[in-house]
Fold:
Amino acid sequence: MDIDVKNLHPLEVRLLRHVASGEDITTDRIVKELDYKVGQCNQAFSWLSAKGYLVEKRRSNRVLYELTELGREQQEKGTPAQRIFALLQNEGPLGLPQVAQRLGLEKSDVGSAFGQLSKAGVCAMTGDNQAQVLKEELPADVLGAAALLKRGLSGQLDEASLSNEDKQIMAKIAKKRGAAGSPFKVVEREEIVYTLTEAGGQARQAVFAANITGEELGAVTVQMLATGAWKNASFRPYALNAPTSRLIPGRRNPYGSYLQWVKDKLCSLGFEEFDGPLVETEFWNGDALFMPQFHSARDIHDVYYVKNASHCKKIEEPWLSQVARTHEDGWTTGSRGWGYAFDHEFTRRQVLRSQGTVLSAHQLTKAKVPGKYFGVVRCFRYDQVDATHGADFYQTEGIVLGEDVNLKTLLGLLKMFAEEIAGAEEVKYVPGYFPFTEPSIEVHIKHPVLGWFELGGSGIFRPEVTKALGIDVPVLAWGLGIDRMALMHLGLNDLRELFTPNIESVRMRRGN
Structure:
């Protein structure tokens, strides 16, 4: 077998020279015998395994216990139970608050430790709530914990080395998470045992035959030049055939880049961007958009409710009163409303916003006329996740206000989104229904793999929406799924690919 020892790293060379065929090779052994760091061991094992010189023999899980800062303090000063026992022995009965003050311990720690002593019959409370000692010896579990603390000073304790009694004690004083408040921290480690393969044995012989030690130098330093030490040094030969390192340049997430590109494009067209909180009220999520509170139309948005706090304290005026009147009898909008008693408790309920139109409603209360506004907002709606649906998603939402805007203006905007931002070649517009717009239009585009799907909805806000929020001119509105537009623009076939954890896929996919 032809082995190019020049391509071996010093970490690999030293390991090969140190071990023999048939021996167990573990991280602990190499760290101890070759003074490697754990990371260096893992590198050497990985490189040699990739070359076929090492093979995994077996693996096992180990549980280790490591002293925390609290554990070191208790080993030095004594555990709370030991200190309480010694204090009561020396000074007689004391109240537990006094014990905590004298020892500088938390009251909760004193109560827990005294309970341990009391349960063992070593201490008890007198009739006037004074703690006293009943026996002259500490219980076995307290002594056992002290012994484990002392053993822990010498390094990690392997669970396999503990007796059954020690394991029971350790279970009470060790934690895996939040270990700062415990004497011991639980450390779980997977141990892999390697051994040399036949090729590894041949590589070992080749290293010895070439008289390579792994101590060869890879570079000349300024100090070596100044002292002349380089003259007697042994250097690693250049391996001209060795593969070069992979260069991975930094790159923005392609979907993040696409969202920023959309924002830049809309801002360049004179739109102002708006934004808002993820948690909204039923008022802004539906009521302000003339969606009746107890009507099947509300079911088009299956929302996620917030548990704590479930309701906000109040809704801004005069919008609450005007919207409530519009729902009940039409207020001054020229409508008959929905004809029911508006529920002021329901409207304060908090939800995760289910549509970006919430922010359009907010913007109406402070918009300039004429004006153009947009947002790229994250929404949450219970849905079956598939290639074109997600339980949370982004929408590009916007409104255009003005005396002269009309349906033709809206169709022009939709054409821009479908063709220029989504990159669709086939687009169609179909009538739709939304409680807050009339007329309403849905935009559909054709994907080369997924076929036709809806991009989103749009329309002209009804007077019941605009007048109740202080606007008396026509308002164009749209809410389009920007995730779906990104499918076309980035050449993807599944929405889930936009949020993939596969870093290689993200690196290969280029955004704008």
About this structure: The radius of gyration is 36 Å. The chain has a mean pLDDT of 87. The chain has three domains: 1-53+197-243, 67-188, 257-508.
